[in-house]
C-alpha cells in the first residue's frame, strides 16, 4: 500500500465515450502527477499539479483533461480517445515539487484499453 | 532531451546476483532513483543516489558515477519475489524525473 489509490483498475472504452480516472492520496502531499506507461517505453509525464495549480502540461492532446479540486484528489477526464492511447495511466504524489531526494509515491494505475 | 538507457530484460537464478546497468544523458543532474514495479502494481521506491559511490540497503545496492553518466542496481541473494521491472530515473535541472523504459528481471528456481 503506497498511500495513493487509483480507480478504476481497468477500463475499456470506445472512441466516442467519455470517462474519468480518479486518484486519491492519503499522504498529505502537495504535488500530484499523471504519467502514461506504454509497454516497453519509458514513463511519460503528462501533467503536474502543485498546491492544486497546474504547473506542467507536457504537450498532451486536449482529449486528456486533468482536474485537481484539492490537494488530495486528481482526475483525468478522457473523451474521444484513440486506440494508441491504450496504456497504463499512473498517478503519483510527492511532498513538494520534487527537489533533492523527494521521491514519488505511485498508485497501481488504471489499465486503459480504447477500442 | 533526456536519454536514459537500461537493458530490456535479464534472467538470473534464485540465490544469484544480478546487476542492472543504467546510463544517462540529461540536462543537468539532481539525483538518480531506482524503482521496482511488480506486474500490475505501483512502482515503489528502492534507492536514491546523488553523490558518487555505493549505497547499500540490505540485499539491494545502488552505485553512481556522475562523470560517466552511469549507475547500477545490484540485487544479491535473489529471491523469486524479486522478479519485477526495475526503473531507472534521473532528476534533471528542471527537477522533473525522466525514466528509462525499465528492465524486466526474471528469477528462475
Largest sheet of chain A: 7 strands, mixed
Mean pLDDT of chain B, nearest integer?
A: 95
Distance between the termini of chain A: 31 Å
What class, by secondary structure content of chain A?
Answer: mainly beta
Provide the β-strand percentage band of chain A.
over 45%
Identify the biggest protein-protein contact and residues per side: A-B, 22 and 25 residues
The oligomerization state is heterodimer
* Topology pattern of chain B, helix = H, strand = E: EEEEEEEEEEE
Helix content of chain A: under 10%
Structure description:
Chain A has no helices and eleven strands. With 115 residues, chain A is mostly beta strands. The model of chain B has no long low-confidence stretch (mean pLDDT 95). Chain B is mainly β and 109 residues long. Chain B is globular, with a radius of gyration of 13 Å. In chain B, a hairpin with a 5-residue loop joins strand 9 and strand 10. Classes of the chains: A mainly beta (115), B mainly beta (109). The A-B interface holds A 2, 4, 40-43, 45, 48, 56, 90, 97-101, 103-109 and B 4, 8, 30-31, 33, 35, 40-45, 48, 50, 87, 89, 91, 95-102.
Short description:
Chain A is mainly β and 115 residues long.
How would you summarize the topology of this molecule?
The complex is a heterodimer of chains A (115) and B (109).
Chain A: E1 4-7, E2 10-13, E3 18-25, E4 31-37, E5 44-50, E6 53-57, E7 64-70, E8 73-79, E9 87-94, E10 105-106, E11 110-114
Parallel strand pairs in A: 2-11
Antiparallel strand pairs in A: 1-3, 3-8, 4-5, 4-9, 5-6, 7-8, 9-10, 9-11
Chain B: E1 3-5, E2 9-13, E3 18-25, E4 32-37, E5 44-49, E6 53-57, E7 60-65, E8 70-75, E9 84-91, E10 97-99, E11 103-108
Amino acid at each position: 500500500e503506497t498511500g495513493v489509490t487509483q480507480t478504476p483498475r481497468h477500463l475499456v472504452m470506445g472512441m466516442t465515450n467519455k470517462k474519468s480516472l480518479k486518484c486519491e492520496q492519503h499522504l498529505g502531499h502537495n504535488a500530484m502527477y499523471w504519467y502514461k506507461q506504454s509497454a516497453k517505453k519509458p514513463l511519460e509525464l503528462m501533467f503536474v499539479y502543485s498546491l492544486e495549480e497546474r504547473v506542467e502540461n507536457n504537450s498532451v492532446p486536449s482529449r486528456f483533461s486533468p482536474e485537481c479540486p484539492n490537494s488530495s484528489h486528481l482526475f483525468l477526464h478522457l473523451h474521444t480517445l484513440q486506440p494508441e492511447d491504450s496504456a497504463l495511466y499512473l498517478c503519483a504524489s510527492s511532498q513538494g515539487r520534487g527537489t533533492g531526494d523527494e521521491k514519488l509515491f505511485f498508485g497501481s494505475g488504471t489499465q486503459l484499453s480504447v477500442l | 532531451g533526456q536519454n536514459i538507457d537500461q537493458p530490456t530484460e535479464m534472467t538470473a537464478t534464485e540465490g544469484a546476483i544480478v546487476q542492472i546497468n543504467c546510463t544517462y544523458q540529461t540536462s543537468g543532474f539532481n539525483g538518480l532513483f531506482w524503482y521496482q514495479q511488480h506486474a500490475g502494481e505501483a512502482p515503489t521506491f528502492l534507492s536514491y543516489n546523488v553523490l558518487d559511490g555505493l549505497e547499500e540497503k540490505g540485499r539491494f545496492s545502488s552505485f553512481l558515477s556522475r562523470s560517466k553518466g552511469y549507475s547500477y542496481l545490484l540485487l544479491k541473494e535473489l529471491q523469486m519475489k524479486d522478479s519485477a521491472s526495475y526503473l531507472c530515473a534521473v532528476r534533471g535541472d528542471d527537477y522533473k524525473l525522466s525514466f528509462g523504459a525499465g528492465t524486466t528481471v526474471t528469477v528462475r528456481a
